[in-house]
Amino acid sequence: MMDAPTTPKDGTGARIPEEASPDAVLVRRTLAEIAPVADQVTSYFYALLFVRNPELREMFPAAMDTQRDRLLKALLTAAEHLDDAPVLTAYLENLGKGHRKYGTKAAHYPAVGEALIGALVRYATASWDAETEAAWVRTYTTISQIMIDAAAENEEHAPAWWQAEVVSHDLRTPDVAVVTLRPDQPYPFLAGQYTTLETPWWPRIWRHYSFASAPRPDGLLSLHVKAVPAGWVSNALVHRARPGDVLRLGPPAGSMTVDHSTDSGLLCLGGGTGIAPIRALVEDVAEHGDRRPVDVFYGARSGHDLYDIDTMLRLQKTFPWLSVHPVTEEQGRLPDAVCRYGPWEERDAYLSGPLGMVRRGVDALRGAGVPSDRIRHDFLAELTPASGDQPRSGACMARTPSMLPSR
Ligand SMILES: Cc1cc2nc3c(=O)[nH]c(=O)nc-3n(C[C@H](O)[C@H](O)[C@H](O)COP(=O)(O)OP(=O)(O)OC[C@H]3O[C@@H](n4cnc5c(N)ncnc54)[C@H](O)[C@@H]3O)c2cc1C
Ligand code: HEM
Predict the structure, then answer these.
(1) The pTM of the whole model exceeds 0.85
(2) 406 or 100: which leads in pLDDT
(3) What angle do the packed helices 109-123 and 22-34 form, to 10 degrees?
(4) How many separate domains does the chain show?
(5) Other CB atoms closer than 10 Å to residue 49's CB: what's the count?
(6) Ligand 1 shell residues, CB under 6 Å
(7) Can you give the CATH number for the domain in which 120 is found?
């Protein structure tokens, strides 16, 4: 039997807390060993999966592009967070539910598990032994069982996917479109959530898009899409989609929703099309008849890129509790602008936009005294927090270059 090292390190080099379970120690040791060759592990994992199970290949996109490492990355991340049960379970339940749209069945999980173990055996040569293998088998079984159970539960009351017809397409700038969809059956979601979407032009390529309004009585759904350079799905939605086209939607996801059990004010940061879910949150507060103070900081490169500012200003006129602060790059960075106002300690904070903006925003808000557990954002796919427990140096005085807004 192999002794666990006294000061084990995880894949990031950080010390593993004393209370890490024996399986977590072994799993993390494997992860540390394969970290430098992660790309090769990914390629080998898929090669094994498809050679041994050719019938699974057609479930995956034709081009296994840069996104191909998501499945393996999630497996590895989940294995790494093995001891953080509540976060892990919520993440995996959502993932399992979302896998229904790919056609994934419970019977497919062993094949993925075997390819995973096969890839680890090949690349974690220094630390692999029978005990490590047993730890990985238990870990994979736990992870997949949570996903399988969540999918089975979800099957009882929701379709695997929805078809949604484009009913209007409004080009707001040369590269931002507001797309309105009519789902083929009721699509229940909460303001602030997002969907996954597949277009007919890129089969099996799914991307996330946030809902731009709270649920409407007519059941229509609207999305704000920005065409990113060389982006497959975004360009199809902005430049090709027309009324009558039919898309597929996965289930709603995301926890950037309003907590109606409190009457704390809201502080919202939306960069680029990140304003879409923020607008939905404002509508949600209004519909609940709350009069909670809501401050929205809306950032974009230029005034022209603030494509939804008219709507936001109209909402501000209607609701005395709402303050909208447009911020262009000329005026400074979005997080810096937020720091010029305040205090924000008592607010629930919501951030949506490009990852760089969200990261810097989280740092700035922590620096401004907003507790971490009151900060919500939509990069939930990332299990790890946007930064360390402490705000990075600078926080409200951050001097990092702006990345607004590619989203
Ligand atoms: C939770 C969540 C919610 C989202 N909501 C929205 C939304 O409401 N509206 C919206 O427009 N987008 C949103 N996105 C981003 C969206 O999911 C896609 O990533 C985006 O549309 C690009 O997809 P694509 O297929 O066009 O580009 P891809 O084909 O994936 O990428 C093509 C190239 O563009 C680069 N790239 C990818 N994304 C960006 C980017 N954002 N900026 C610059 N370059 C990029 C890639 O690195 C690659 O080189 C959201 C993302 C997440 C995670
Ligand atoms: C514990 C097991 C698994 C984990 C952790 C996992 C994780 C993931 C993740 C994170 C993604 C990225 C997109 C998303 O969030 O939905 C993904 C995509 C996908 N997964 Fe899984 N998955 C697992 C098992 C399976 C199984 C058993 C199948 C069926 C063969 C499968 C098929 C797919 C397909 C087809 C995609 C989309 C392909 C793509 O976008 O590249 N997954 N998986």
Answers:
(1) yes
(2) 100
(3) 60
(4) 3
(5) 23
(6) 194, 207-210, 223-226, 228-235, 273, 276, 354, 378-379, 406-407
(7) 1.10.490.10
